[in-house]
Amino acid sequence: MVDVRDVAEAAAISLTEEGHEGKTYDQVSSDMLTGPDAAATWSKLLGKEITYAGHGNFDNFEAQLRKTGNPLRETGTPMNTRPSWLAHDLRLMFEGFVERGFRKTEDQTARFAALLGHQPRTYSSYAEELATEWAA
Fold first, then answer.
1. Taking a C-beta distance cutoff of 8 angstroms, is the pair 112, 120 a contact?
2. Which of 21, 24, 36, 123 is most buried, by CB atoms within 10 Å?
3. 10-53: pLDDT as tens digits
4. Rounded to whole angstroms, how far apart are CA atoms 36 and 53?
5. pLDDT tens, 98-121?
6. Which candidate, 123, 60, 56, 122, places its Cα nearest to that of 87?
7. pTM for the full model?
8. Angle 58-68/85-100 helices, nearest 10 degrees?
9. Domain ranges across the chain
């Protein structure tokens, strides 16, 4: 998970400062997050047990996408105008995330941190900020 503030900051820096022409930056977090990790974070912050329920049925996910259309459609474009193969491709993409997770290297993290001028924000720091706002 990459904090949207880091995404925005990276975009602003790379678009407004010199030296970024032709370069690419992998936007990564400094930690890796799993469903059980996210549940444990919220359990700690909220003081009650939060459990990770796992992932849904990918057969149903693909069937629903084929039935309702592409969730990534452009505004004003009828849902049924997207190719049906997209439902299968999205299913494979999400299955891959579940089976293999997201990967990053220390080099990617260091390069992204150098661009930002600070370590990328973590999911737990985001959750802590949000829980504090909720409590206020």
1. yes
2. 123
3. 999 999 999 999 999 999 987 888 888 899 999 999 999 999 88
4. 9
5. 887 777 889 999 999 999 999 999
6. 60
7. 0.67
8. 150
9. 1-32+103-129
